[in-house]
Description:
By secondary structure, chain A is mainly alpha-helical.
Amino acid sequence: MRLEKCWFCSSTVYPGHGIQFVRNDAKVFRFCRSKCHKNFKMKRNPRKVKWTKAYRRLHGKDMTQDATFEFERKRNRPERYDRNVTENTLKAIKKIDKVRVDREARHHKERMKGKKEQLRKEGVRELDQSIHMIKAPAALLEDPSLTIPKLKVKVSQDKAEATRMEE
Amino acid sequence: MAASNSSSKLFRGGLSNNAFAGSRPSSELARLDFLSQQTRTFIQMRTNLKVVDNSGAKRVMCIQALKGDKGARLGDTIVASVKEAHMGGKVKKGDVCYAVVVRAAMQKGRCDGSEVKFDDNAVVLINKQGEPIGTRVFGPVPHELRRKKHLKILSLAEHIA
Lengths: 167, 161
């Protein structure tokens, strides 16, 4: 039994799942589900399809090089069954998984660093430039403190204005 | 199965008419492209198959699928009539011979639950006893042949899928 990788999305194909397509040049394409298979038949390039691992690695969204990936390399030599080795391997798999997930989370954090600052800056810019979309410039000229609608005084003024408008 | 294929082709024809009338080329073409994915089915009477050994035949038409009421699948033997042949080969045009299907476009389930499918329909000509007529086999072959006891073909193959 071997856990293969889907050719299109790079997820693991467990036994009993998926289709393998053998091309006449003897290249075997394994797919995890019909979504990947249909995309392949449409001749889509996985490096351009946003949800695939190939795209994410190519565009730096996910980690590309890490020591934990070395453990998943394909080995063609069959191992003689040894109970202790099997037990240790299973324990190691769990640990390596945890390490890899932690490293991926760290990579994601590094990638998203500075996002809050950027959003804040954009908010300030929007308040400066696009306030005319929310409050009419004439109203702004009357009372320049009308730009920041957070003050409680503001709200009551608005309500008073609204009632005056209705009348 | 043939009816469903022909009906999908008719539907394509209908869509293309609408496309030219409606002048929305890109979306219609994309849908046409999607519809061109065929449902692959069994190998039955009148199915043309490619011959992938050096027995001399190039193309063969299935006359009878020996097992299976709907048709032959990957690994089954068929009776076939040679439609095209190389000059001076072991078989000539018009010969009736047995053949074993080594590649089928229809997916076949494997015992581990997965499915395999190939790019085209291809056969290797054999005699009544099951031995191949040719001496070479081209392209990948499935290891379903081992179960069907076509070990000679497996030994001649360049790649076992």
